[in-house]
Amino acid sequence: MLNDTTLLLDLDGVSVARVERPADGRRRVHLVTADEAPRACPACGVFATRVKGSAVTRPRDLPYGEGGLEFRWHKRRWWCREAGCPRKSLTEQIPQILPVPG
Questions:
Q1: Residue 62: which domain range?
Q2: Are strands 50-57 and 14-20 parallel, antiparallel or unpaired?
Q3: pLDDT, tens digit, for every residue of 45-94?
Q4: Residue 45 domain flag
């Protein structure tokens, strides 16, 4: 899915919702998922249709420019609707933004 965020940040699958400048002077970029593919359960491949909740992550491996940008990815948690799936729920993921190790 090609959009302005893809062109600006080389990130496909997310869009910029807004940008703000906190007191420290950096730029904080709020991203939202802009593609349906991240709703596919990684265990069974079925597309989720029921939202479980939301999460905000802070991808840190996305350098941009000298001053850098601070990212917040507002994504949804989904229930997997496949009865036999062991996963039961999932959080949106895209290959360009790796999960932060916990």
A1: 4-91
A2: unpaired
A3: 999 999 999 999 988 766 666 767 888 999 999 999 999 999 999 999 98
A4: yes
